[in-house]
Amino acid sequence: MIIPNKYYDLRNCLTGFGGHNISFNIFFNTYIDWQPLALKYVKICDYFNTFVTLNVEMGMTLNGVRPIPKFIFPLVLGAFTAVTYVGFVAVYTVQPQPFIDEIFHIPQAQKYCQGNFIDWDPKITTLPGLYLFSIGLLGPVSWITGRSFCDVICLRLTNLVGVAFTLSTIHKLLNYLHGERVDGWKLILASFNLGIFPVFYWFSFLYYTDVLSTLLVLIMMLLHIHKAPNFAAVMGIVAVFMRQTNIVWVGFLAGLLAVDAFGFHTLRAPIQTYVDVKKLLKRLRKLSTKPLQFSECLANIIADCCIYALVILSFCVFVILNGGIVVGDRDAHKPTLHLMQICYFCLFFLLFSPFYALEKLKPFISLCKKYPHILLGLCLVCALVVQSNTIVHPFLLADNRHYTFYVWNKFYGKWIAFRYLVIPLYIFGAYVIMSFIRHNSFAFKALYIAASIACLVPQRLLEPRYFILPFLVARLQMMSFSWKILTLEACYYVIINAITMYIFLMKTFKWEDIEEPQRIIW
């Protein structure tokens, strides 16, 4: 357990839970050795939290935000699950057979259900977390009832369970991050919006890894912010078993914890800004002249972060022994340098945050007018990336069951000029993303950018599912909770989901080598 969390909690208690830079920060930061003080008076937090809890139960909070009755969110969750189940049944009715990647996942899961853990489909690239979760959920039911529950509909149901838990986890995260300043009704609507985020929500109807992978990473983050790094690291291991790229988000949390530990053991204060980083580097230079103190400081930091480090080290050993990250079909999933993925993600972010983007349009234009040379430089860099790093995966051109096939063939592939015309949108998208995380610390911003790049850039295939976690992590940091925007966004997402559902149910076509009708998904 690391002590700085105690200090930060104490400071936040005395500064209205916000950690804002007011006189209390100055008071605490003047202490060279504040640890005994923090430990001596940390009970103030307990009394203060008790006071807040009593006020909440009486319908009041310190900042005037009235909480909602506790039964409201379970009702919303129940309604959400019921409506999702209706969509689930509709999808199963028209597509009772395994579809696209399900033709690999479902037979593999059924082998696991039969106790066959040896045979492995070489086309599957992910670790067996999805199948282990399924038999963990369905196995006890099968044992009790005496019949197998590993058919297509039951396996798909695991993602229906997963999407309900994801909505609950998102709500808990938003409550923790924003609950003291944002109305509870707004938080429920914001949670609902992210729960029906179209690219994510669609895969609750099929047997893919995306829903459970996202859920596990979000639970890991929830445990981390609740100062339970050991449990978070365990959840990180489970998340990696669901999808190997989740190791990036384990590294993201490890980086945040390491920065906190550095701040505590060197500056005796959190590292929030670029100025704090400069102070840290200056302090490290001084410590480097004192080998004993430097070694002690480094040992303390390693001890604080060792649990995440063990997970990352174990993954590195796996990669070395396995000869790569993926466990199958390596020819189709070779890591590559695909910088255009960053541009695609920025455009993707705009597409699914249009109402927030409209709020940022005016300040963005003002910034461009103020710094035209920077805008020009960014445009030139993007143009260079478009020119030299536009990579087209064979799957993108061959599989017309995905929306990206049509986007590419109607725009990017057909009109070369289009690739350059959307460069301003890439830059604007990056600006909007940064506006979502601008209130976070310098370390969070740097680590988020690094994690997003690590998730996306090695991927050769343009696949919207890869954008889900970078999108959600940024959106969870949003500070704007306008009723108007939240309502418009809810309607927007519902319409998109309704259209994609209609297309899947009603639009079919034939492939020469496959007897079943084909459909279109994300």
UniProtKB/TrEMBL annotation:
Which Pfam families does this one have? Answer: DIE2_ALG10
GO biological process per UniProt: dolichol-linked oligosaccharide biosynthetic process
Q: What keyword terms does UniProt attach to this protein?
A: Endoplasmic reticulum, Glycosyltransferase, Membrane, Transferase, Transmembrane, Transmembrane helix
Pathway assigned to this chain's UniProt record: Protein modification; protein glycosylation
Top-rank taxon, per record: Eukaryota
Bilayer-crossing residues are: 71-94, 129-146, 153-174, 186-208, 215-241, 247-271, 292-325, 337-358, 374-396, 416-437, 442-461, 481-505
According to the UniProt entry, what is the EC number of this protein? 2.4.1.256
Q: GO CC annotations? A: endoplasmic reticulum membrane
User: Mainly localized where?
Assistant: endoplasmic reticulum
Give membrane topology per the record: Multi-pass membrane protein
The record's InterPro entries line, in alphabetical order, gives: Alg10
Q: Does the keyword RNA-binding apply?
A: no
Q: Which reaction does it catalyse?
A: an alpha-D-Glc-(1->3)-alpha-D-Glc-(1->3)-alpha-D-Man-(1->2)-alpha-D-Man-(1->2)-alpha-D-Man-(1->3)-[alpha-D-Man-(1->2)-alpha-D-Man-(1->3)-[alpha-D-Man-(1->2)-alpha-D-Man-(1->6)]-alpha-D-Man-(1->6)]-beta-D-Man-(1->4)-beta-D-GlcNAc-(1->4)-alpha-D-GlcNAc-diphospho-di-trans,poly-cis-dolichol + a di-trans,poly-cis-dolichyl beta-D-glucosyl phosphate = a alpha-D-Glc-(1->2)-alpha-D-Glc-(1->3)-alpha-D-Glc-(1->3)-alpha-D-Man-(1->2)-alpha-D-Man-(1->2)-alpha-D-Man-(1->3)-[alpha-D-Man-(1->2)-alpha-D-Man-(1->3)-[alpha-D-Man-(1->2)-alpha-D-Man-(1->6)]-alpha-D-Man-(1->6)]-beta-D-Man-(1->4)-beta-D-GlcNAc-(1->4)-alpha-D-GlcNAc-diphospho-di-trans,poly-cis-dolichol + a di-trans,poly-cis-dolichyl phosphate + H(+)
Which family does the similarity line name? Belongs to the ALG10 glucosyltransferase family.
What is known about what this protein does? Answer: Dol-P-Glc:Glc(2)Man(9)GlcNAc(2)-PP-Dol alpha-1,2-glucosyltransferase that operates in the biosynthetic pathway of dolichol-linked oligosaccharides, the glycan precursors employed in protein asparagine (N)-glycosylation. The assembly of dolichol-linked oligosaccharides begins on the cytosolic side of the endoplasmic reticulum membrane and finishes in its lumen. The sequential addition of sugars to dolichol pyrophosphate produces dolichol-linked oligosaccharides containing fourteen sugars, including two GlcNAcs, nine mannoses and three glucoses.
The protein in question is named Dol-P-Glc:Glc(2)Man(9)GlcNAc(2)-PP-Dol alpha-1,2-glucosyltransferase
> Which species expresses this protein natively?
Armadillidium nasatum
